[in-house]
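Protein 1 of 2
SEQ + STRUCT:
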Amino acid sequence: MRSAGWRRGWSSWIAAGIAAALSVNAIARWAVALGVAIAPNAWRPLPGAKLELPDELARRGAVRIEAEVGPPAATLVSWLIEPRTQPPRGSVLLLHGIRQDRRSLVGAGTVFADAGYRSILIDLRGHGESSGRFLTYGAVEARDLTQLLDALAARGVELGCVGAFGFSYGAAVAIELGARDERVAAVVAAAPFSSLRDVVSDYRLKYLPAALNAIPDSWFAQAVAEAGWIASFDPDGSSPLHAIEHSRAHQLLIHGTADTQVPLRHSLALSGAAGPLVELLPIPGAAHDSLPAPVLHERALAWFERWLAPSVCQDHARAATP
């Protein structure tokens, strides 16, 4: 009888240990999913302090604009720079990297404005001054930008030919926007990722301790699926890799060959999935955060001058019309 009781007690401890391990596993995976899905502004109860307009933009007469987007409901905040020469040669949306804000785009925005383009520096949902609880890696953000363009047009802004310039997270959003909105004729995507699943895998290898490399890929795949559930989007159905296959926009992918955060293979995959409308420009020796700004701005501007030219843009609009 004592032996049977001992066995029952030991079995209970084993069952409790397994249950505890499963609970820890589920909690850890949920924490990873939250880290993927939660926006920087998720827990901000009230609008935060306004970002101060940089002196360079103030001298150019830049204005702060707000646009209501959704669902889910959010307010996008942007700076709009009109070029000194009128009318503008077109409008360029500028999109920042993850957990950054529109201040990171001032250099590019002034370059494009000096070249005659209206520059719109945008805080994507959940970043900077824009509200929003979740990140969807382009799925909702691209729809937000279509609504922003609609709002600007409704306010009497003559958009003209539209381009999009994005870095990293913003680059992926730009690619998705190019596939979604037929007004976007040209996209410049710097260091884009091809899919959320692949970039999470890269971040895992780069940032997690080597001892955790034994965790199976399927565990992280489930965490990404849970992030999609939290933020109400499909991580597979709304990837840049899927979008670029169906985009009519002319797209320039710029990527550093020494990028270990979002490796060059992401842009190789994107260019391989796309048709003749996409070009890939590798930057030898450049890492994720060290793409040389002069080269980046010069090549982006040349791309917009090529594909936002009125005659080319009009051809794009006619091709997009059913």
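Protein 2 of 2
SEQ + STRUCT:
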Amino acid sequence: MRSTTAASGPLGVLGGTFDPIHFGHLRTALELLDVLALEEVKFVPCREPPHRDALPERGEVRLEMVSAALEGEPRFSVDAREYRRSGPSYTVDTLASLRDEHPSRSLCLLLGMDAFLGLPKWHRWTELLAFAHIVVAHRPGWILPADGPLGDVLAAHRVLTSEELHADLCGRIFVTPVTQLEISASQLRRALAQGSDPKYLVPDSVREIILRSGCYQ
């Protein structure tokens, strides 16, 4: 799909449970924003992850933490549409709704390498490229698939320059390295449950919410 009258610059979409959001998420988003010349990045917290147990006890506090983490960076925004939608939070539904809102704008779904390699397990994963480009934040030591369903899609849709993400509205896959901050949300949750202080792993505003709410105790 091509556009000659794009309403504005490319929009990055970064989804996740953000349980909790940490500097690894933020640094990756910032580097991709600059490398891809995105106009903005929307952080889309997942309300009901299909691949994990529901998180009702931390739903609102996760949204609060993401909002707090993004303060001070005007090119970042939080998008709560998955909180307004009932049922499992499927990425394909989120991208479809964003495409309806931005019919003439390039959309870029931002994924880590681990998420990209797990795409064949996602709901209606082959439809993602009908709504957006896929940008993969490459991790050292990980190997892109050369065969299988994902390898076939990569061979058919991969581009080597970010400029092609501006020329087309969707349908491309771009792989680019980013600085890897080895912060694991699952390990962070376990440490918090044992009473560890998340200082220097999350923004101070997020740390204050965690300590105040006791949401991981």
